[in-house]
Structure formats: structure tokens, C-alpha cells
User: Fold this.
Amino acid sequence: MPHTARPARNVFEPRNPDWEAAVRGSFARQKVMQLLGAEMGALSPGHCEIRLPFRDDLTQQNSYFHAGITGTIVDSAGGYAGYTLMPQGSDVLTVEFKLNLLAPADGDYLVAEGQVLKSGRNLIIARGEVYAIKNGRATHCATMQQTLMTMHGKEKT
Assistant:
């Protein structure tokens, strides 16, 4: 009998008792998210969602969201998913990511979801998915894998 069951979503315990305030505070200080008009959505240990409404100045020549914009929000979604698990007094830094563009990012808004796959003391591996939502229909437009570094002793207030 073939195995067809999907593995359960990883369950992680935050190492910072004030993880949510730390993540939301960091997001509020991130100037590029303000510039783009991005908003943080769902947030839980090991998971983060970022939403970005359509604006004409965020597009490429065919009026799709630019790939750089798509990459920017999914990098932050994965980064903040990782940051939910980092210890108090630390900060997050992306050290590598790979982005595959699956379809044009044509939508009324984008939703980027970051999910931690493995959480270590210094490195965290995350994945990210981006969906373009148009007329209530979601199109999976990008997928990312990312490595994050815990910057111990770097938390900002």
C-alpha cells in the first residue's frame, strides 16, 4: 500500500517569551516594508504571513508585481517565521535564499507565507510560498527556500 499521508506541520516552541512583540516591533521598524505598503498578517511560532496590496509602481512592464517585490516580501515572511523562534536578545539575518517564480504575480494583492522547516541554535531553514490573489482566486506564483542566521546579542528595542 503506497504511503500518501502528508506530514503534519512542524510545531515549534519559541525561545523568547515575548516573541510576538519582538517580531511585530521589528516588522514596524523595517523601512522597506513601509515603503512597499506591506502588512503583517497571521503570525505563530514558526509561521508568518505578509500581505501586499497591488500598486502600479510595484509592477514590471506587463503590469505584474515585479519579481524583486515578490522576492522581498517572501524573504521577510520566511525571516520573521524564523525570528519567532529565536531567543530574546537576538535578531534575524537572511544569509541565503533561492526563489522559483512559478507564474506571473498578477493579482489584487500578494500573500507571502513563511514556514520554518528546521530550527537550530544559529541557523534556521525556512520555506516560503507566494500567492497572487485576483478576484478571490489564488495563484501560486513563487516558492522559496531560505537559510537564516540568528544574530545573538543584536535585538533592537
The chain has a mean pLDDT of 94. The first strand starts at residue 39 and ends at 44. The two ends are 54 Å apart (CA to CA). Residues 19-152 form a domain with the Thiol Ester Dehydrase; Chain A fold (CATH 3.10.129.10).
